[in-house]
Amino acid sequence: MGRLYKFEEEFKTLANLIWIIAGNIIYAISINILITPMNLYNGGFLGTAQLFRYGLANGLGINLPANFDITGIIYFLMNCPLFYYAYKSVGIKFSLKSLLSIGISSLCLTIVPVPVKPVFDDYLSACVIAGVIGGVGSGMILRGGSSTGGTDIIGVCMAKTHPNLSVGTVNILFNAFVYLTCLFLFNVQIAIYSFIYTTIRSTFMDRMHTQNINAKAIIVTKKNGIAESINKEMGRGVTEWTGTGSFTGDDIQILMVAVTKYEIPHLKEIVENIDPHAFMTVDEGETVVGNFKKHLA
User: Where do transmembrane segments lie in this chain (predicted)?
Assistant: First the structure.
């Protein structure tokens, strides 16, 4: 049993690493290939890094290297203070995985070439396609227990203390500064389309990041041990009642547990291993108030 558990943990770690690496590559491609050539801007810290790059090149007249984009380097330096915040708020694993993720993301943003000519002729097509691709990439990173840095780190940390707050929502709220700056420096069109892109990206990121979605499960069983296994394996509290089946007249246990959508497969596995004949209903999108801890990393 111990070897099986160790194998499952190692497999989960490898799977998370694949999610993180693949997500960062997809995310960086969506920005450098689709967004940057259109002179559009990301939100949050990455958008701020893009504005810094613009200021260095156009405000200070510094000749930046043509063969790579320094946005990734600026972005990495801006994220350095957040690693400690992530460590204190979420834990060492999330902090280290975020460091790895931001390192990969910064590298990809630096080395992925930016096309001289935009892939799309119109802003809306670029916003929609880049938003979907970037949102999927960002969601993959979050599902791997990491983040793309910046407002994602802040969002995950805040979601730990505010269970009904999603990372995507925090991203949108933190983007006001970037787009107000775009409105001041450029024009209304750039600001509006940049906001459209980020809104689409945040929406698809939340769709992928199922740790954000709360759920309530009610389990009806005749066997003991399910509640204890949920406590031990998932770290979740369970409310338990005793009841009687109206059709059979048999004594039954009624269990209720609040989880995230991401944890539902694990919950089903626990129930099926102990009582294959148990009856379980799951309601997603529940509002949870009180002592509920999101397992985000």
Answer: 14-35, 70-87, 99-116, 172-198
> Do 116 and 234 belong together in one domain?
no
Sheet holding 251-260, edge to edge: 239-244, 251-260, 214-221, 279-284
Dihedral, CA of residue 101, residue 106, residue 112 and residue 113, to nearest 10: 160
Task: Report the chain's C-alpha Rg in angstroms.
Answer: 22
Q: Is residue 291, in this structure, part of any structural domain at all? A: no
- Per-residue pLDDT tens for 60-106? 777 766 666 788 888 888 888 888 888 877 778 778 888 888 888 88
Instruction: Give this prediction's pTM.
Output: 0.68
What pLDDT, in 10s, does the model give residues 148-202? 778 778 877 777 677 666 666 776 777 877 888 888 888 888 889 988 998 898 8
Give the chain's domain count. Answer: 2
The domain boundary, picked from 184, 208, 232, lies at 208
Residue 211 Ramachandran class (φ > 0 left, ψ -120 to 50 alpha, else beta) = alpha
Q: Do the domain assignments include residue 12?
A: yes
The two three-digit tokens of residue 70, written as one number:
């320094």
**195 and 127 housed in the same domain:** yes
What are 40's two structure tokens? 């559009």
Distance of alpha carbon 229 from alpha carbon 226, whole angstroms: 5
